[in-house]
Amino acid sequence: MKKYISLLMMSVVLLSCKTEMDRAMKSADKEFILKVANEKFAKKKWSDALALYDRLPNLVAGTDDAPNVVFNSAYANYYDKNYRLAANQFKNFVISFPQDPRKEEAAYFSALCYYEGSLDYNLDQSNTESAITELQNFINDYPDSERSKNISQMIDELGYKLEFKAFENAKQYYKMGEYKAASVAFENVLEDFPATKLRPQIYDIIMKSKYELAVNSIYDLKKERLDAAAAYAKRVATEIPNTEYAKTANDLYTKLEDEKVKFAKLQVEVEKRKAEYEAKVKNAEAKEMEKKELAQEKNQLNMEKAAEQTRRDSAKINSPEPQATFKFKR
Questions:
Q1: Which helix (H) or strand (E) holds 212?
Q2: How many angstroms separate the CA atoms of 154 and 160, rounded?
Q3: Burial class (CB in 10 A: 0-12, 13-18, 19+), 115
Q4: Contact call for residues 149 and 183 (beta carbons, < 8 A)
Q5: Could you give the angle at which helices 66-79 and 103-116 cross, rounded to 10 degrees?
Q6: Nearest Cα to 235, choosing from 221, 249, 222, 224?
Q7: How far apart are CA 171 and CA 323, in angstroms?
Q8: Successive 10-residue mean pLDDT values, the chain, 330 residues
Q9: Predicted pLDDT at 224
Q10: Which of 24, 43, 149, 239 measures 20 to 30 Å from 199, CA to CA?
């Protein structure tokens, strides 16, 4: 019997709550809507509270209830994980009620909403960049606030997320064997994040990219790339000594120096063959020139003979035949 009575009482309570919510949603009574909204807020029923607070801005505009409605609505959206909307509402509260004692709190939660809305590193990071800006703005506006103490840590965390995203994007080039692009991309990461904690890993991948690019290089660029890769390996070993990266750097440096010796021998052989080839070409060109000169001389002689013959023929045609002569007897 007691069980049925308990169930009946629970049903009555739930029905009354539902009825009250329905009445508040249909009511035009500001006080009643505000009362039910605040009750829902106190019970952490965020969606119900928000539905009622959304009906109140025009009803409470210009009254003492307006700040509470905006502030509670922003909090409800924050707890309901509507971070972008909550951030805008908290920011609007700061602007609309500059004399309210909760102004600093609202400014803090506005920045915190951007922080909470930051996505995983492999997703779009526009929220992360905005969060860093908003958190830094809070520190600038409230440098002595107790809330500022943990903001620097949040900014560092968000900054690392941006660093790691850039790192992973650059790493994709290395995985695809695009070593030149990988080197450039990682150099950009170091330029954009000079204080990055990922510097040793970045040095390591740049060094390996330069090594792969050098040993697999075309002949004309190989010496330059071997020198650059060896210099970079030496730099890594110097800047981060006594690490696994330094050990790798020393190993690669040794391999690169051996490769430079082999390539120097290859260069000597190539230059030798090049000189032999050039000599053959030069000799062939000389013979060809000699043949051309002989042909020109022969052609000149033939032309001179033809000209002489033409001159003789012309002279013969233009000279009259000699007249007949008779001898007379005396």
A1: helix 199-215
A2: 10
A3: buried
A4: no
A5: 20
A6: 249
A7: 111
A8: 48 54 78 86 89 86 88 94 94 93 94 91 85 93 88 92 94 96 96 93 96 94 94 95 95 94 88 82 83 84 81 71 54
A9: 94
A10: 149
Q: For residue 257, which of 213, 214, 200, 205 has the smallest C-alpha distance?
A: 214
Which residues constitute the domain of residue 216?
A: 176-287
- Residue 189 included in any domain: yes
Contacts of 185 (CB under 8 A, 6+ apart): 169, 170, 173
129, 162 contact by CB (below 8 A): yes
Sorted by sequence, the CB contacts under 8 Å of residue 58 that are 6+ apart come out as none
Q: How many residues does the chain have?
A: 330
Question: Which tokens go with 145?
Answer: 């606030």
- Other beta carbons within 10 Å of 235: 15
CATH number of 227's domain? 1.25.40.10
pLDDT tens figures, 251-286 = 999 999 999 999 888 888 887 887 888 888 888 888
Which residue in 269, 229, 272 sits closest to 251, CA to CA?
A: 229
pLDDT at 146: 87
Indicate whether 161 belongs to any domain.
Answer: no
64-75 pLDDT, tens per residue? 888 999 999 999
**pTM, 2 dp:** 0.69
In a domain, 51, yes or no: no
Question: From the centroid of its chain, how far is CA 151?
Answer: 27
Q: Is residue 109 part of a domain?
A: no
Residue 18, pLDDT score: 59
Q: What local confidence, expressed as pLDDT, does residue 325 receive?
A: 54
Tokens of 112: 């915190």
- HSE, side-chain direction, 13 A CA sphere, residue 72: 28
Q: How many domains does the chain have?
A: 1
